[in-house]
Design brief:
This protein has about 375 residues and is of the alpha/beta class. About 35% of the residues lie in helices and about 20% in strands. An eight-stranded mixed beta sheet has the order 1-2-4-3-7-8-9-10, with helices on both faces. Strand 5 and strand 6 form a beta hairpin. Helix 8 runs parallel beside helix 10 and helix 9 crosses helix 10. The longest helix has 23 residues.
Length: about 375
């Protein structure tokens, strides 16, 4: 064997050895015993609870890339004797919130939850879903006793949304040490969870690019309602730096976006006359007369648009997508793939957003 051939074979051997070493030393993806693309149920910690004291659990879908969706589920809210009773009692046609886990793994099959859809921008990502069953926008840490207004009997609600969320986040932080990217999202009540827990998540992942999207949770409120509701939930102990007034949501967006302006992007999706957000706004402002429905919807829409504009004006890393109509929530629906406004499809907009590209603020041509 010639010297040149021996040298060539030696170089090939060293290359293969180095390659094998790299493969062997490469960090494996998390959850090695879980099959990719399948939703799996996890039991909550011992201190977690739903509103009616039933067990809390959460869901995880294994990805094939080291990127993570942290997704807060929606499901209404309750804040006083009457509203918290609505779902707690049986036989109520339109409960204000879910007091127990209502999701099954088989339910997670539409919108961004469908990891078989090639158009899904997070189809290959790990997906951690935080269910919602506490009536407190994922922000409570209180066992609150209310009084049934019809018979004056007491009943207790476990407003433990923050306890539940922190339990899932603690597991997430232990499981995903330094992912390539994180997407924080949620619809309705989950949009508030996605806004208020972003600071905690971003603080943990300080060197990771984090993207947030609140789906239909603008937070139009009054000073009195915000202070009253969050007082019953004990949210001030969870988020001590937050002033719970009429601007508690947009002030949180502004403060969080500016705190992490170099590696965090925040965003909101809303519709012009979101039927659910309008109904809750009517409830908390006492404008429940159906005859005033159009006026209340217009009032809410004006507040919503001014709130989003304020966040946009006071930050450099915030985007909004405003669509026509009154549909509440888009990410759990297959409408996510078809929704378009002013020539921009939402799925394309979010795909670019999560890729770190510059995206426009989208709104109807004539609001």
């Amino acid at each position: 064997m010639t010297i040149r051939l021996k040298l060539g074979l030696s170089l090939v051997f060293l290359f293969l050895l180095a390659l094998a070493s790299c493969v062997q030393n490469a960090a494996p993806l998390p959850l090695p015993d879980q099959k990719a693309g399948v939703w799996v149920e996890f039991a909550g910690d011992t201190d977690t609870s739903c509103a009616n004291a039933s067990a809390f659990k959460y869901f995880v879908n294994k990805g094939t890339v080291d990127k993570v969706v942290i997704d807060f589920q929606g499901g209404g809210a309750c804040f006083d004797d009457a509203s918290c009773l609505a779902s707690y009692s049986s036989g109520v046609a339109t409960p204000l919130y879910a007091d127990t886990i209502i999701t099954k793994t088989s339910d997670l099959n539409q919108g961004i939850y469908d990891h078989t859809n090639a158009a899904n921008p997070v189809k290959d990502w790990y997906h951690v879903m935080v269910p919602y069953c506490t009536g407190d926008l994922h922000m409570g840490d209180n066992s609150k006793t209310y009084t049934n207004p019809s018979n004056q009997e007491p009943y207790t609600i476990q407003h433990k949304g923050a306890v539940n969320a922190k339990s899932v986040l603690d597991w997430t932080f232990k499981t995903f040490k330094s992912p390539d990217a994180v997407f924080i999202t949620g619809c309705s009540a989950g949009a508030y969870g996605a806004a208020f827990w972003t600071d905690t998540i971003k603080t943990e992942y300080k060197d990771v690019n984090v993207y947030q999207l609140g789906d239909c949770g603008v937070g139009a409120a009054t000073d009195g309602f915000a202070a009253f509701a969050t007082g019953n939930w004990n949210s001030s102990s969870v988020f001590p730096g937050t002033t719970f007034d009429a601007n508690f949501v947009n002030s949180t967006y502004i403060a969080t976006a500016n705190k992490f302006k170099n590696s965090l992007n925040m965003a909101q999706y809303n519709t012009l006359f979101d039927n659910t957000q309008v109904q809750f706004y009517a409830l908390i402002t006492g404008q429940t007369d159906p005859a005033n429905g159009a006026q209340v919807a217009a009032e809410w829409s004006d507040i919503m648009q001014k709130s989003v504009a304020k966040i946009d004006a006071e930050t450099t890393n915030f985007n909004s997508y405003l669509a026509q109509g009154s549909q509440h929530c888009i990410i759990p629906s297959n409408d996510f793939y078809t929704r378009a406004e002013n020539g921009t499809k939402l799925v394309d907009w979010l795909t670019d957003y999560l890729a770190g590209k510059t995206v426009p603020n989208v709104k109807p041509v004539t609001p």
